[in-house]
């Protein structure tokens, strides 16, 4: 086995022949990896949750997306009175829950002589319940929106919605009933599910309340996304993406420590990689494990290596790391395929042949970010190799890192401004500074200057989503800018909490609450894995986040 | 046991004391009767049915309710092409089916990365698919309408609609999908259920084709309504009503011969009767057997006795008949409670204290019909008593029949016109003639005159629904008017077939196709038990219906 791996490692780095061999190797391993993924599949922990209050939805320009939920009465007022007189009520579970919703119906007058028809709308945030879904203008499937029409043929009844739901609020409307009887809706509940079981350690008492709050909301976010894979969001898209896996596993390493889940995901992705051995950005568990065919997402494929390295570092599970090492090594061939004689990644070609993500931000030029991420991946994979005593398999990597770093500095760094520029338009963006800083291409001083200067640069493209904000905070810390890192977490994630977040959102632009990559903000996910990473920062860097805030 | 029954039989006929005793007796027997009902519960026979063609719905003033379904292509054209390109298609099962619908979804391009959302609308007749249901104006629950909204979280998938459906046509609309994949809908099927198992004997070859057709549609109607009770309609209300039971069991006696089903229903009604021992017009099986509290429907309670007599006559099952005899005898107390010294039923009081149904016909005065039905019930119950050698328990009945018949003739019969008149307005209706003829109050000659004269009477209230048309045909046969009976079946039920009926309808007024007792014609039932009785007439009276039609 070891011999094969070594033999492959050479072949992987050499054009066509390596692709053929990789195909053979993957074909032989795929079922093993999938079997190991299945073995590591966690049991879901079930908890019954119940709403505690009814709320009124109030239009309010000062509230997030224009709506707030104001506590009206205890939920018992719902259960005790005829439902007919309360048509359209909204119950509040008081927290984000992911699971299976049930309710009971009891006749309160007359005999039920006809079915009842309900519409239940589940919202993670108040605006989802107040914004009409139809006619639907979103770019994603309308079916992601969580409004369910349910016919109940007999009363009394216990009704369970088959679909798993993710929500805090439920609006319940009566669409059909008989005049010959009245009824009550009682005991609404949700069998909440998560594979997170361990209770994370408490933060140091001295931790500022705001960071305690941010940590709590981050843990909630992560817990909700931890199912039988690391999901990106329990409402949408409910599946494993490499980028989300990476960030979730970072946070998990410092909180729930569900390492089996990380292991499962690493194996699942390996088992479902493309025929050429390149990883596919996202995979599905149901009805049986399968990849999103052709979904080659370069930055995510590369980050798999970093996730594997972090997994090994947290668990010392060398068996898994060795087992998956050929996968990590194969991903380096992506870099080899696009790096040019001058040390720069062929951005134009890569952009044509792969999806380069990096952020939800219209018009973002990703040349510099890609260069940075490629260098970072090489470095991290080399660290992984060293931990496994396999650095001899990556003999060419150290020189490649040097060459690519130098090329990045020479071609993308503007010494006069102190900032990186991307693409033919020499675009100035946070993404470019962030990834070149994380790549360690610049000195600490240069990194600080780049990250400080861009804050003063008008029209610089700032991050569009929490995903890139994560790397921003990491870059700030890497550059020794602890205060700014702290401020960013405080302002950005703290900002979501100020606006009512129970879980952190997929998309949050403080300047545009209605921003949606899908052209319809209610279809955004408001509990999204990649937003949970303050948990990681606050717990990994206690000296930064768990000490009193300086006066600013 | 026998002694108790006898003792009760005396008490039943004497006011308050009898009520108290009846309560005791029923309390002791109710669980026995319910247990016997449960024991007689039939297994459902399952058959997989599939649509054969796609149809186009065409607005057409000449078609029933303005819509016709025109065959477009074989159903394979649906299965072979992308569903997306066929959104809104209508499949045709070619016959009325009652059961559980499934379909399969298969990805045809790309990878399913989002749920699908469908709306499926099930129609017994084409107009149900072409008439918007909302905003809903009907008097019954909107939930009876069979439009189901279904979210399918993963593809490929086999989807089964939980609700039992009754339909011939299905319109399928796609409400949500992802642009990243395409799919096909394949293998739509319905697990059709019925408790009718025996194959009725074939009609004599010489039977005119029209009566063969009417018999076939009647059998379909009955078969669809025969579930674990005789339902009134498999789409709506899906439950046991005494009036429907009576007519269905008549047709069953001459066709499927599922006598256990009749027995089950007779016991179920007995077990769920009111505390006073009076039968309740309708009962439910789910979630557990229970009556529609307070639904006292006088004509139906009385017809139970006739149904029991017919059951005994068809089966010779004296054990059941003896067991339920106290129930039948108790129903006679209803008549005793309302018959006045002059021999007339106290219509005003009865109409206040009970629901008197007889027909869906606005403004119908039911005094004469009630008098007729009361007399008929006394006669039939006396026949039942004789068959059980219990006529001594009904000593007062023969004289009561005479007295009430005489009172009917004296007070309600207009000798000059030869017709019965009802109520203070002396209303002329088919219902009055029909029930007084069936009661045998008039001579054959008088009966014929009444039934002939009303046909020539302008503004006479004619029957509103097939239920009363059944009694009309029976009255015609009783009066020896075979040709007219034949014509009525041919014109009325044959008329439905000419308008496209696969099963006979709950409501059919040849002069108003949109008539609905519920203010919205799509909520009418188009497969309704009480319309199936041509099966009974055609098979019981072969000399009338199974011989060549005379030239008319």
TrEMBL record, chains A, B:
Domain of life from the UniProt record: Bacteria
Signal peptide: 1-22
Protein name (Swiss-Prot/TrEMBL): Alpha-L-rhamnosidase
UniProt key word Signal: yes
Coiled coil regions in record: none
Assigned keywords, A-Z: Signal
GO biological process: one example: carbohydrate metabolic process
Species of origin: Mucilaginibacter pineti
């Amino acid at each position: 086995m070891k011999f094969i791996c070594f033999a492959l490692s050479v072949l992987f780095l050499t054009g066509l022949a390596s692709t053929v061999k990789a195909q053979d190797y993957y074909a032989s391993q795929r079922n093993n990896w999938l079997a190991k993924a299945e073995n590591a599949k966690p049991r879901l922990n079930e908890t019954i949750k119940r709403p505690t209050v009814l709320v009124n939805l109030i239009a309010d320009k000062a509230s997030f997306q224009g709506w707030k939920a104001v506590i009206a009465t205890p939920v018992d007022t719902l259960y005790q009175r005829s439902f007919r007189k309360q048509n359209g009520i909204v119950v509040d579970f008081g927290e984000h829950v992911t699971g299976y919703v049930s309710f009971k119906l009891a006749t309160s007058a007359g005999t039920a002589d006809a079915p009842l028809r309900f519409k239940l709308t589940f919202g993670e945030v108040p605006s989802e319940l107040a914004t009409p879904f139809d006619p639907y203008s979103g770019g994603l499937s309308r079916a992601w929106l969580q409004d369910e029409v349910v016919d109940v043929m007999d009363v009394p009844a216990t009704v369970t919605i088959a679909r798993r739901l993710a929500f805090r609020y439920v609006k319940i409307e009566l669409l059909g009933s008989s005049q010959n009887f009245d009824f009550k809706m009682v005991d609404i509940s949700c069998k909440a599910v998560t594979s997170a079981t361990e209770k994370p350690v408490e933060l140091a008492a001295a931790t500022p309340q705001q960071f305690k709050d941010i940590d709590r909301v981050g843990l909630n976010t992560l817990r909700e996304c931890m199912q039988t894979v690391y999901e990106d969001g329990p409402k949408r898209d409910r599946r494993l993406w490499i980028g989300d896996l990476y960030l979730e596993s970072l946070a998990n390493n410092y909180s729930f420590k569900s390492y089996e889940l990380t292991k499962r995901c690493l194996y699942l992705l390996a088992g479902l990689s493309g025929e050429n051995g390149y990883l596919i950005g996202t995979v599905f568990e149901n009805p049986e494990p399968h990849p999103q065919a052709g979904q080659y997402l370069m930055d995510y494929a590369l980050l798999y290596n970093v996730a594997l390295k972090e997994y090994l570092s947290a668990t010392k599970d060398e068996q898994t790391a060795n087992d998956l090492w050929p996968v990590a090594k194969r991903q380096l061939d992506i870099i080899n395929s696009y790096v040019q004689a001058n040390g720069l990644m062929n951005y134009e070609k890569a952009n044509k042949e792969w999806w380069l993500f990096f952020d939800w931000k219209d018009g973002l030029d990703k040349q510099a970010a890609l260069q940075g991420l490629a260098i970072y991946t090489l470095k991290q994979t080399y660290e992984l190799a060293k931990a496994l005593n396999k650095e001899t398999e990556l003999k060419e990597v150290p020189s490649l890192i040097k060459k690519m770093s130098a090329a990045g500095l020479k071609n993308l760094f503007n010494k006069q401004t102190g900032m990186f520029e991307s693409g033919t338009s020499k675009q100035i963006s946070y993404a470019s500074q962030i990834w070149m800083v994380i790549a360690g291409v610049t000195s600490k001083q240069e990194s600080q200057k780049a990250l400080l200067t861009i804050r003063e640069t008008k029209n610089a493209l700032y991050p569009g989503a929490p995903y890139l904000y994560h790397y921003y905070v990491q870059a700030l810390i890497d550059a020794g800018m602890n205060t700014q890192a702290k401020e960013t977490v405080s302002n950005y994630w703290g900002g979501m909490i100020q606006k009512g977040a129970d879980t952190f959102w997929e998309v949050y632009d403080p300047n545009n609450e209605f921003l949606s990559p899908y052209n319809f903000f209610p279809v955004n996910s408001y509990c999204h894995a990649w937003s949970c990473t303050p948990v990681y920062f606050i717990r990994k860097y206690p000296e930064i986040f768990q000490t009193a805030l300086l006066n600013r």
